[in-house]
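User: Once you have settled down, look closely at the record that follows, taking as long as you need, and be ready to discuss the fold:
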Amino acid sequence: MRPDTPADHIAEAERLERTAGLYPEDAEQLLLQAAAHLELAGERDRATTLYDRLLAPDAQHPPAAPTLIRALKAANLWEYGHEAEARAIIDGVRAAAPRDPAPWVIVAESLESHDELPQAQETFTEAVELLLPPSDTTGTPSYEQRPLLFGRHRVRRLLGAPHDAWDALADEVSTSPIPLDELHDPKRIWSLGSNNPAELRAEISRIQAELGSYREALSRPFPVAVLHWPSTELEELLTAYPSLESEYPSHEAHLATIESSLRELAASGTPNLGIVTGTVPSYEAFAASEGTEPTDVSLLPQYATTLAARGRAVGWPPRGDAACWCGSGRGYGGCHGGGTS
């Protein structure tokens, strides 16, 4: 049942914490979800405890996204009176210059929600300039990058700043039927107190358009992901389940198949592609949860889909000069991205 009351949110958070204990390899995503439920329940101090648990130096599994966790912690701290600590963490997130848009969005929106509009604009702009170089003002930003443009547009509209190239790009990529200038108009609030039915209807239409955009974002499908086994994990998998050798004749062939499969999907027009990395204990636990044996080859794509649904997918292809997804340490362009592999 979907949580609706603080008690429901607390119960769901506790269930997620228990599940994290059973699946330590997925603990990061599960505990982040638990912290979100605790925030919704008003148990912000307990949420902070979970963020600290994930960031602890002696954590069993170091977090894959520590900057994101710090950003969430900062936003949560500010909401229950720890402004100085939150500001210090936000400064640290900005100094770290993460390549992931999500931490930038969280800290910028936290500043915005506390009426720190100039600082919010600076933060959004830092992120846009880092993640979307000037040459990209005519390109198409990724789905994950768009909230940076929209948030920056919104804050600049509130500050009365003139449009620039990034604002124009935000307008271009927005899918809302209502122009961003109208959605982000500071004067909109005035019409909520109007006695004019036409003004009220216009405002309701704008709000409905915003809700439609939010629903679209929330309903965004998780990536179409291909399963990747690192060499050590694949060796362990085939030692335990030799019958899977027909699927994985060699690690080199496995890597080549991943790249070629993703290229075929991209050529066919499939959007939102990604790669998930498997581990033998996680796969065995998944097989047990499905009531089947790990030797069932039909389980492999289901396992990949489940990992993607848990937020474990890494987008493909790597952007720019990023490291290749295979873990070789070489840049993607000089590794699997350089040819047909």
